[in-house]
């Protein structure tokens, strides 16, 4: 019995360039060789070799790959999206590692940092020899970062930082943290060496999602940093929000990768699992499920590629990124849940990737802007009315 992948039905990838195909192929090969054999164990034990993986990802040019100079690959946005798709097909935690490193920590320094900051940190981060994290979210200020309580005050030529950040990917293994704080002059960003006195990080344990990813709380207690650590071009809340837009763009593609992996698992299982004297793929209800999942998957992929073209033209808008995340993550969760029903009880084990993806996607639905907040961004674009308050 022959099967066809849904991407083939619409010839979705026909417009990809040769370079884009090669980047996608290299990333997929890395995930197949390095991630898939280990990911179930990493997820089950909630342990992952972040530093080892970062250096490997740096060697193949995936860290900060869409940035120019300083050891970065300088690829187009679509290539970056395709890489995110392949990484998240392995696991959301692996894509998160790359997103936080490149689209949050590195992008913040690249877009808003001084030349000295760029020279010091970007080559190390691009090579995976240093790990970065991004400290914006607080326990009581997630969707409303403008209310953050972390504060920085001037003290001569230095700044003193006090406060906490929560749900920070790679926080406890990071060498450098991009920390956002309220000051008397407004919100400012700082490039903080995590070895400085007054900086500490605590691993968040007992997670039921994103278990193959290190999540931490950052604590600043009288943390003294020189003014040269301040991001000179970050002069308002707009700066960290623009960094988040970069990460959200990667999620648009990443969610497609997780959904694709769920679909492929369900299709393969349905084609070989026999019940009532034949493969369950022959039953009408199973074919309806597969057709429904394939249509949602293709729609999400087409949307991702369309937004990639807009971003490559440097014309993408925040509401377009919000619509991409709003649609694709929600669609990926629906595909994961439907795919799990085809596998029955087998679908809840780590032998298959579906339940792991389903758990991870519940976090992806929330981080880099909750599903509800993105709906309000879209609503504001449609009505001209901000309903955030």
Largest pleated sheet = 4 strands, antiparallel
The CATH C-level name of the largest domain is Mainly Alpha
CATH architecture of the largest domain: Up-down Bundle
Radius of gyration: 21 Å
| Poorly predicted residue ranges | none
Structural class: alpha+beta
Q: What is the spatial order of strands in the main beta sheet?
A: 2-3-7-6
Order of helices and strands: HHHHHHEEEEEEEHHHHH
How many beta-strand runs? 7
Tell me what the structure shows.
By secondary structure, the chain is of the alpha+beta class. The protein has three domains: 6-127, Acyl-CoA dehydrogenase/oxidase, N-terminal domain (Butyryl-Coa Dehydrogenase, subunit A, domain 1, Orthogonal Bundle), CATH 1.10.540.10; 132-229, Butyryl-CoA Dehydrogenase, subunit A, domain 2; 238-383, Up-down Bundle (Butyryl-CoA Dehydrogenase, subunit A, domain 3). It contains eleven helices and seven strands. The protein has helices at residues 6-9, 18-45, 50-59, 77-90, 92-112, 115-127, 238-272, 284-312, 318-343, 354-364, 371-383, and strands spanning 132-135, 151-155, 158-169, 176-183, 186-193, 199-203, 215-226. The chain has a four-stranded antiparallel sheet with strand order 2-3-7-6, with helices on one face. Strands 1-4-5 form a three-stranded mixed sheet, with helices on one face. Helix 9 (318-343) runs antiparallel to helix 10 (354-364). The longest helix is centred in the middle third of the chain and has 35 residues, at 238-272. The radius of gyration is 21 Å and the shape is globular. 49% of the residues are buried. The model has no long low-confidence stretch (mean pLDDT 95).
